[in-house]
């Protein structure tokens, strides 16, 4: 390598390269075939997409916005929005693909887009390029996705340990576990649509994720004064539509709420943290019948707004079904006490052992208060409709649970049969296990048809409850003393419903069996007892299928009478009752203050 | 006749370098009396942009700090975060990262060869090397999904595993490039005209080089052995066999010779990496990026890029976004302060030639 003759001649060797075909593509005469992993133009599977907007959140170029698409309407678990990409801003980093919880968004092998119209750089993937479905290249499967699809497992007592006592089964998240679980949330807020109360779920989860537990508590109490109850026993419709659940386990919203609310160890701490603004007394008064979730919620928010609120509760303890219906291994007494005491501390008055219709009439309440809210719940059990139903040893689940939760003794012996498939049936079965009995649940349909929570069903099975599905009880057999000693049932097969509904059980003729038992617990549903409402008022309100018809403010046909909870909604769970109470707060306030003007 | 001093504004468009900058030259005749660099035509403010983005959102930005060689930026950002966080990176990911970094070095050197020869009027060379670089870009496309901006090395490892049969494809390209090196020698490195143009041009004073902060091939071209891969090995460079070539002279020629030999070393490293590629995970997953907080702390990491030592300093205050990220690349030293010194006495025709030999990269100066 120097300035010599060799160095002068050497470059001429390049001539031997003449005429060689270059490696590069001769565009536009040749088409470039892109790699199977190529990051080209976007494609969105419109059916899979739920419009959560995570793609838009992560985009560091702000190239994605969420827009309405004709023909796609919002529905439960789908905002109805779809991403639109500004190809003039996009840098094809594909972070949007990596964080798409449903996996609907992908990049394709297409990379050429030519237009004279600058506005047409705005593309709605999937709408503007339906052919992209066949060209998907850069996709994020759950292995590569940046989201965490596995839930932080909840620690629980072992099944064999649980049946020894009424100790709480769920042990709760530690701080570290809660932070880790909360970090999984993408904050899309789709869950809030399905929550009857529309709790601020992404906000309180975000607070937990970032270590601000007290903020989380304040956010929870903003529209739910029974957050701790919901943290333990909520039916969590939110989790059903969690965006993460499309490809993995939903964020444990209920357990995170439980974690946050339990950070306040007692009612003083709750009060200190929530620090509610209580308006001075406004001179108005509201009567509430029943200290269940709906009544307590209405009372709490009305009291905060300066109303004089008095609750009339027929029993010795407040809480309604959460106190008397839910077993203590799911919702311990001290937790209920903490929540009730906090409410009393901000001015909610509760008259215990005061039965409306007996100790005081509805008319008297109307004279005393400007508005009355009824939240009495469904406490009257349906008859199971079998011969010998009235015999000794035949018990109704709600009565049984109420007695056990009131520390009373119930003689059930050592072999119990529970009839039903809802949460009450499972509760009765699991309580019976704790009382030392062998328990069999007879249910008409299949296990997957049971209305009870799957976690409850699993919990029951872990504790040794035997579930006998497709079994239709026929009669209770009594001994000479008139006590139930056995139950006769028939096996059933599932036949399609001629009306197109879910399959129905049909008795298999001759396939009848008898189980010996010391007690039969019926749990096939409850109804309300409206005997305290006078005929005159009853004639002015509408009762449909056992439930009082109310408007969007929970107001009945009688303008001063409001209703909520199980008697007004058919969801029959605590969170729906809380939602009713919350709505009634606004309805009652509007009714009273408008009347004043 | 006494020649009058004239001012020439060279740029902001330049042959042979990527990005725009201007050099204000005071010349008498053809000889440069003084040079003053003017940057600011790009004003990309990456460092500031990063302060407004979450940690992961920074990752598609940093590769744009250097267009021809984006990967050291991805490597640095990833490693600086891992350093602060204490995040482990799987062994396989480390090997894949070295593979990407060396392929990137080869691609950059190919582009440099084209630029270096193009800036002296030898236009056949860029046709070849840019074409051959496409073989490497094809590999990148198959591995990462992107040809130029790969966005592939990220905190915790790499984004995707090697595709099926990727190693063989890489080896094939290495064989091809090794064969082509002979042609490059014939056309450029053994070219007497190139020798004549490059020898003694753009000389960096060996005694001053380190004091001025010169790094990479320009420093090794002064006969000083300095390479982060050897001095402070990162990833798996300590498990690989390669030499760091040095050359005396400090001129464009010496720098070209250093890069020419490093080209061979990189081919060897790529082969070793493919041969020793371990199995296992390629990624130690970060938490949900929307809630990912890097613990408070700071760190400085450095990588040997094709243009020299490339460092990143990052500070985290424990929030979702970096408090500060600073990219310390070679371009500022080489392309601004060093260039102004060594242009003195050079010819106007050599300005682009010298700029190219220093690895001047305006986007990185204006990071």
What descriptive keywords fit this protein?
heterodimer, A: 597 residues, alpha/beta, Alpha-Beta Plaits, FAD/NAD(P)-binding domain, 4 domains, 21 helices, B: alpha+beta, Cytochrome-c3 Hydrogenase, chain B, 2 domains, three-stranded antiparallel sheet, 14 helices
Annotated CATH architecture of the largest domain in chain A: 3-Layer(bba) Sandwich
Please state the average pLDDT score of chain B.
92
> Could you tell me the radius of gyration of chain B in angstroms?
21 Å
Mean pLDDT of chain A: 92
**What is the CATH-assigned architecture of the largest domain in chain B?**
Orthogonal Bundle
Number of domains of chain A: 4
- How many runs of DSSP E, i.e. beta strands of chain A? 23
| CA(first)-CA(last) distance of chain A | 102 Å
Encode the helix/strand succession of chain B as letters: EEEHHHHHEEHHHHHHEEEHHH
Structural class of chain B: alpha+beta
Classify the helix fraction of chain B into a percent range: 40-55%
Number of strands of chain B: 8
CATH superfamily of the largest domain in chain A: FAD/NAD(P)-binding domain
| Sheet with the most strands: spatial strand order of chain B | 1-2-3
Please state the CA-atom Rg of chain A, rounded to the nearest Å: 31 Å
Count of discrete structural domains of chain B: 2
- CATH topology of the largest domain in chain B: the name is Cytochrome-c3 Hydrogenase, chain B
Portion of residues in beta strands of chain A equals 15-25%
Overall body shape of chain B: globular
Sequence of strands across the biggest β-sheet of chain A:
9-8-7-10-23
Largest sheet of chain B: 3 strands, antiparallel
Structure description:
- With 597 residues, chain A is an alpha/beta fold.
- Chain A has 4 domains: 42-138, Alpha-Beta Plaits; 159-273, Orthogonal Bundle (Fumarate Reductase Iron-sulfur Protein, Chain B, domain 2), CATH 1.10.1060.10; 277-380 and 537-596, 3-Layer(bba) Sandwich (FAD/NAD(P)-binding domain); 382-526, FAD/NAD(P)-binding domain.
- Chain A is built from 21 helices and 23 strands.
- Chain A has a 5-stranded parallel sheet, sandwiched between helices.
- In chain A, β21 (543-544) and β22 form a beta hairpin.
- The model of chain A has no long low-confidence stretch (mean pLDDT 92).
- Chain B is α+β, with helices and mostly antiparallel strands and 367 residues long.
- Chain B contains 14 helices and 8 strands.
- Chain B has helices at residues 46-51, 59-62, 71-85, 91-118, 124-144, 166-189, 192-198, 206-212, 216-220, 228-231, 252-276, 330-342, 351-357, 362-365; strands spanning 5-10, 22-28, 31-38, 153-154, 157-158, 297-305, 308-316, 322-328.
- In chain B, strands 1-2-3 form a 3-stranded antiparallel sheet. A 3-stranded antiparallel sheet of chain B has the order 6-7-8. In chain B, strands 4-5 form a two-stranded antiparallel ribbon.
- In chain B, β7 (308-316) and β8 (322-328) form a beta hairpin.
- In chain B, α4 runs antiparallel to α5.
- The longest helix of chain B is centred in the N-terminal third of the chain and has 28 residues, at 91-118.
- Chain B is globular, with a radius of gyration of 21 Å.
- In chain B, 55% of the residues are buried.
- The mean pLDDT of chain B is 92.
- At the A-B interface, α1, α2 and α5 of A face α2, α5, α6 and α7 of B.
């Amino acid at each position: 390598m120097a300035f010599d003759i060799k160095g002068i001649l050497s470059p001429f060797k390049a001539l031997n390269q003449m005429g060689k075909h270059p490696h590069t593509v001769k565009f536009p005469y040749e088409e470039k075939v892109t790699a199977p992993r190529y990051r080209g133009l976007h494609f969105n599977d419109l059916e899979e997409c739920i419009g959560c907007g995570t793609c838009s959140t992560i985009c560091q170029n702000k190239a994605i916005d969420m827009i309405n698409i004709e023909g796609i309407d919002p529905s439960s678990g789908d905002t109805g929005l779809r991403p639109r990409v500004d190809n003039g801003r996009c840098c094809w980093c594909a972070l949007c693909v990596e964080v798409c919880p449903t996996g609907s968004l992908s990049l394709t092998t297409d990379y050429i887009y030519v237009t004279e119209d600058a506005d047409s750089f705005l593309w709605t993937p999937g709408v503007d390029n339906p052919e992209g479905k066949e060209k998907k290249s850069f996709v994020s499967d759950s292995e590569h996705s940046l989201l965490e699809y596995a839930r932080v497992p909840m620690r629980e007592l072992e099944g064999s340990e649980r049946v020894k006592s009424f100790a709480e089964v769920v042990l709760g998240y530690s701080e570290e576990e809660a932070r880790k679980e909360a970090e999984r949330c993408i904050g899309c807020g789709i869950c809030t649509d399905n929550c009857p109360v529309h709790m601020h779920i992404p906000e309180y989860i975000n607070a937990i994720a970032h270590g601000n537990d007290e903020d989380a508590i304040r956010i929870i109490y903003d529209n739910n004064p029974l957050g701790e109850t919901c943290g333990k026993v909520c039916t969590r419709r939110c989790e059903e539509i969690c965006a993460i659940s499309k490809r993995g386990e939903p964020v444990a919203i209920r357990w995170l709420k439980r974690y946050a609310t339990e950070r306040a160890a007692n009612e003083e701490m709750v009060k200190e943290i929530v620090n509610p603004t209580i308006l001075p007394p406004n001179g108005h008064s509201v009567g509430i019948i029943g200290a269940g979730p709906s009544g307590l919620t209405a009372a709490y928010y009305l009291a905060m707004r300066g109303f004089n609120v008095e609750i009339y509760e027929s029993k010795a303890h407040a809480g309604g079904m959460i106190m008397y219906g839910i077993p203590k291994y799911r919702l311990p007494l001290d937790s209920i006490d903490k929540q009730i005491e906090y409410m009393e501390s901000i001015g909610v008055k509760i008259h215990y052992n005061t039965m409306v219709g007996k100790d005081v009439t509805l008319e008297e309440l109307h004279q005393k208060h400007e508005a009355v809210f009824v939240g009495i719940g469904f406490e009257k059990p349906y008859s199971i409709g079998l011969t010998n139903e009235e015999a000794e040893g035949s018990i109704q689940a709600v009565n049984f649970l109420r007695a056990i939760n009131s520390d009373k003794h119930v003689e059930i012996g050592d072999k119990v049969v529970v009839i039903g498939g809802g949460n009450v049936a499972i509760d009765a079965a699991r309580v019976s296990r704790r009382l030392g009995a062998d328990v069999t649940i007879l249910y008409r349909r299949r296990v997957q048809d049971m209305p009870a929570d799957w976690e409850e069903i699993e919990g029951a099975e872990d504790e040794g409850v035997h579930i006998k599905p497709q079994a239709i009880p026929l009669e209770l057999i009594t001994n000479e003393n008139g006590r139930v000693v056995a139950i006769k049932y028939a096996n059933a097969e599932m036949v399609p419903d001629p009306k197109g509904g879910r399959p129905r059980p049909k008795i298999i003729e001759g396939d009848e069996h008898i189980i010996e038992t010391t007690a039969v617990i019926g749990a096939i549903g409850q109804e309300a007892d409206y005997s305290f409402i006078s005929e005159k008022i009853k004639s002015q309100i509408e009762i449909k299928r056992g439930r009082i018809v109310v408007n969007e403010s929970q107001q009945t046909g009688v303008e001063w009478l409001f209703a909520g909870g199980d008697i007004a909604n058919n969801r029959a769970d605590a969170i729906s009752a809380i939602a009713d109470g919350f709505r009634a707060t606004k309805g009652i306030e509007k009714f009273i203050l408008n009347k004043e003007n | 006749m006494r020649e009058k001093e004239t001012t020439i504004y060279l740029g902001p468009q330049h042959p042979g370098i990527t990005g725009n900058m201007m050099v204000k030259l005071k010349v008498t005749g053809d000889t440069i009396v003084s040079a003053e660099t003017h940057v600011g035509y790009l004003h990309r403010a990456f460092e500031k942009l990063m302060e407004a983005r979450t940690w992961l959102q920074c990752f598609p930005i940093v590769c744009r700090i250097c267009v021809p060689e984006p990967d050291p930026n991805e490597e640095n950002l990833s490693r600086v975060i891992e350093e602060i966080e204490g995040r482990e990176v799987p062994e396989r990911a480390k090997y894949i990262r070295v593979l990407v970094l060396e392929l990137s070095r080869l691609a950059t050197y190919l582009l440099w060869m084209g630029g270096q020869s193009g800036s002296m009027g030898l236009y056949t060379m860029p046709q070849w090397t840019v074409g051959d670089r496409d073989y490497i870009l094809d590999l990148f496309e198959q591995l990462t999904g992107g040809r130029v901006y790969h966005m592939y090395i990220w905190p915790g490892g790499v984004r995707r595993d090697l595709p099926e049969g990727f190693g063989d494809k890489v080896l094939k390209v290495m064989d091809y490039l090794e064969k082509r090196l002979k042609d490059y020698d014939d056309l450029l490195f053994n070219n007497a005209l190139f020798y004549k143009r490059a020898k003694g041009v753009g000389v960096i004073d060996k005694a001053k080089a380190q004091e001025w902060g010169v790094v990479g091939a320009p420093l090794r071209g002064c006969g000083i052995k300095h390479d982060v891969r050897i001095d402070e090995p990162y990833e798996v460079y300590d498990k690989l066999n390669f030499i760091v070539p040095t050359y005396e002279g400090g001129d464009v020629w010496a720098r070209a010779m250093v890069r020419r030999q490093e080209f061979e070393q990189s081919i060897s490293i790529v082969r070793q990496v493919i041969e020793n590629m371990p199995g296992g995970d390629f990624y130690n997953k970060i938490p949900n990026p929307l809630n990912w907080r890097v613990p408070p702390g700071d760190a400085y990491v450095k990588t040997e890029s094709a243009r020299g030592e490339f460092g990143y300093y990052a500070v985290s205050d424990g929030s979702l976004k970096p408090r500060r990220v600073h990219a310390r690349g070679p371009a500022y030293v080489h392309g601004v302060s060093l260039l102004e010194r060594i242009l003195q006495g050079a010819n106007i025709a050599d300005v682009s030639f010298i700029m190219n030999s220093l690895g001047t990269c305006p986007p990185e100066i204006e990071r």
